[in-house]
Amino acid sequence: MDENGGSGTDDRPSDEWLFDVFSRRCPSRGTLEHVTGRWGSLTLGALHEGSLRFNALRRRVDGVSEKMLSQTLHALERDGLVHREAQPTNPPRVDYELTPLGQQVAEQLLGLIHLVEGRMAEVMVARDRYDEAHAVREG
């Protein structure tokens, strides 16, 4: 058995695997990166509202480039959090929606997002206090 509880010969998880995000070799680190990165968390949050086409999703996640959104969606799809549905129409229509796992992850993220949004007044005060204290020392 390797440090993650697997045999070391197969990269696929089994029921015997133990995942530990604090372990350097744990594959959950990559997924956590995809989920908690700026574009991943915003994409999951936007898709929690419902299925969206690529351009509508890009407009909802203000500031994301086409390339970054595409990379983010590929990573989230690979992790099993997003489902891509391509319609055989002309022009092609592609819709993105959360999988059941993606829905659970998005709900947890939205709890954190709402907590941060609701406490931003305190954060802004703390930032001002910090900036004032450090400007005195540096100036």
UniProtKB/TrEMBL annotation:
InterPro entries in the cross-refs: HTH_HxlR, WH-like_DNA-bd_sf, WH_DNA-bd_sf
Pfam families in UniProt: HxlR (PF01638)
SUPFAM superfamilies associated with the record: Winged helix' DNA-binding domain
Keyword annotations: DNA-binding, Transcription, Transcription regulation
Every HTH hxlR-type domain range: 26-124
Top-level taxon in the UniProt lineage: Bacteria
PANTHER family tied to this protein: HTH-TYPE TRANSCRIPTIONAL REGULATOR YODB, TRANSCRIPTIONAL REGULATOR, MARR FAMILY
Protein name: Helix-turn-helix domain-containing protein
Organism: Streptomyces laculatispora
